[in-house]
Amino acid sequence: MEITHIEHIGIAVRSIEEQLPYYEDVLGLKCYNIETVADQKVKTAFFMVGQTKIELLEPTSDESTIAKFMEKRGEGIHHIAYATKNINNVLSELEAKGVRLIDTRARGGAEGLSIAFLHPKSTGSVLTELCEHPE
Ligand code: ZN
User: Fold this and answer.
1) Per-residue confidence (pLDDT) for residue 133, from 0 to 100
2) Range list of β-strands (E), the chain
3) Ligand 1 centre from 25 Cα, in Å?
4) Domain of residue 69, CATH code
5) C-alpha of residue 54 to centroid of ligand 1, in Å
6) What is the rounded CA–CA span in Å between residue 72 and residue 134?
């Protein structure tokens, strides 16, 4: 395993626009990117905090996993994402250790990262993402 830091914390929100004043005016963070990830049916907004990001996730469809999450649990922390090197090797290593994977190989995520999710059944119910930055 080569986890280097917490890449981001994903937070499910009904409306990025409604939450922006809290992050920008109250916490004094700057939203530096808003991006729609079409295949995940979410709009994302990013704030940098040190080398870690806060990622707000707003569903763009009722079919989005974020919409389904909020139906059950409301708004709030959705997942934690660790930055790692050699993500596909790490996934193989985790699988060999008996960790259930949602993605057995990395796929493309927001901001050009390679990402993969681990199953909450294997992570103490914390939806966990691994990310690798492009070289
Ligand atoms: Zn994420």
Assistant:
1) 92
2) 3-12, 31-37, 42-49, 52-59, 76-84, 107-108, 114-118, 128-132
3) 24
4) 3.10.180.10
5) 9
6) 34
Distance of CA 55 from the midpoint of ligand 1 (Å): 7
**Structure-block tokens of residue 66:** 């974020």
Residues of the chain with pLDDT under 70: none
* 101 three-class SS: strand
| Centroid of ligand 1 to alpha carbon of 128 (angstroms) | 8
> At which residue do the structure tokens 């709009």 appear?
43
In angstroms, rounded to a whole number, what is the distance separating the alpha carbons of residues 103 and 56? Answer: 21
Q: How many residues are given for the chain?
A: 135
Say how many domains are in the chain.
1
